[in-house]
Amino acid sequence: MKNPVHPGSVLRDEVLLALGMRVGEAAERLGISRVTLSRVIHEHARISPNLALRLEAAGVGTARGWLAMQTARDLADERAAGMPKVRKLEPVA
What we know:
Elements: H1 7-19, H2 23-30, H3 34-41, H4 49-57, H5 63-81
């Protein structure tokens, strides 16, 4: 199974680069620090619900869409890390 793309790379490549916008300018418009946005677009941090709402308010997709991308990435990362031994939850006799 292919690993889902990090939403930060989508934000970097399909939004900021497409708009010709620098990280500092985008961060200012979103009301967050340049460091925070830089960590996301370089895939060192997740898209938070707060950032997802800010992106939606800025006209860049929907908060639900950004969080769906992040959740898909998180689940793929957890699966790749391997599952511990788990037993089914069944009624106790």
